[in-house]
Amino acid sequence: MHDGVESEFVENEAVVVRKRRKGIYILPNLFTLAALFGGFYAVVMAVNGHFDRAAIGIFCAMVLDSLDGRVARMTNTQSAFGEQMDSLSDMVSFGAAPALISYIWALQGLGRWGWLAAFVYVACAALRLARFNVNTGVVDKRYFQGLPSPAAAALVGGFLWVMTDLGFEGAERLWGMPIPWITFVLALYAGLTMVTNVPFYSFKDLSMKKSVPFAVLVLIALGIAVINIDPPIVLFGVFVAYGISGYVIYFWRKAKGLQTSVIATSTDEPDERGLH
């Protein structure tokens, strides 16, 4: 009788299983936080009147943002938390920060037109990031659907960097044209291009693990040397060319009768999530 009661007690005994607590991967999120700090630093520097440092903060955020996704894959530390954190960081560094520093520097002199251009840029950055998150699995990984937000931020911040490096103030004229209105047009172009369906090459099909000819390393070294000649002008020129390249690809495909949309041309999950 005693054995029967004991066996019944063992069978009915509740087994408590402790679930392993989910943690947050430190390394990739450190890069994301550093990119977020770059955007915050840009706004603080703009408020204090250091616009050249503000532009540099945006470019530093862009470099760090391109690294967090790669680091996560190299260390096998991808997570849904990291993806959401990355998008929020991008909204600050490449959405709010460029709009605010350009408004403080030049656009506020245009009154309502100034804050209208700044808001359009911010709104388009938010829409572009949201669309990227929901279309990740149906967009050809070789192309971005619309201008990536870091490239748009580089257009706005790069122009400011070039002007301050040349000694121009936000309220002056450049070749007879008011700088505030040039900034206005550039902010609208960058913002609206982010939400178009124009394809921009993503460079995601270039693998860092593959061997390359020796000449490639020589070209990379030359590229670094050219950038060091005059970083503001060279970097701004590169992103101006990239900002136009999407329309060149679009009209070239249209002229050839090829599909211009990057939607549903590939069902592969894009390899890169660091550069939106």
Would you spell out the secondary-structure blueprint of this structure?
Blueprint: H1 2-12, H2 26-47, H3 51-74, H4 80-105, H5 112-134, E1 143-145, H6 149-165, E2 173-174, E3 177-178, H7 179-194, E4 199-201, H8 214-229, H9 231-256
Antiparallel strand pairs: 1-4, 2-3
Q: Would you give an account of this structure?
A:
Helix 4 (80-105) runs antiparallel to helix 5 (112-134), helix 4 (80-105) packs parallel to helix 6 and helix 8 (214-229) crosses helix 9. The protein has helices at residues 2-12, 26-47, 51-74, 80-105, 112-134, 149-165, 179-194, 214-229, 231-256; strands at 143-145, 173-174, 177-178, 199-201. Strands 1-4 form a two-stranded antiparallel sheet. A two-stranded antiparallel ribbon has the order 2-3. It is built from 9 helices and 4 strands. The chain has a single domain (26-256), classed as Four Helix Bundle (Hemerythrin (Met), subunit A) (Up-down Bundle), CATH 1.20.120.1760. It is mainly alpha-helical and 276 residues long.
The CATH homologous superfamily corresponds to CDP-alcohol phosphotransferase transmembrane (TM) domain
Number of helices: 9
Looking at the structure, the CATH topology is Four Helix Bundle (Hemerythrin (Met), subunit A)
Shape annotation: globular
Please summarize the sheet with the most strands.
2 strands, antiparallel
- Nearest-angstrom radius of gyration? 24 Å
What oligomeric state best describes the polypeptide chains here?
single chain
Uncertain segments: 7-11, 265-276
Structural class: mainly alpha
CATH architecture: Up-down Bundle
End-to-end gap:
70 Å
User: In what range is the share of β-strand residues?
Assistant: under 5%
Count of β-strands: 4
The CATH class is: Mainly Alpha
The overall average pLDDT, rounded, is: 84
Helix content: 55-70%
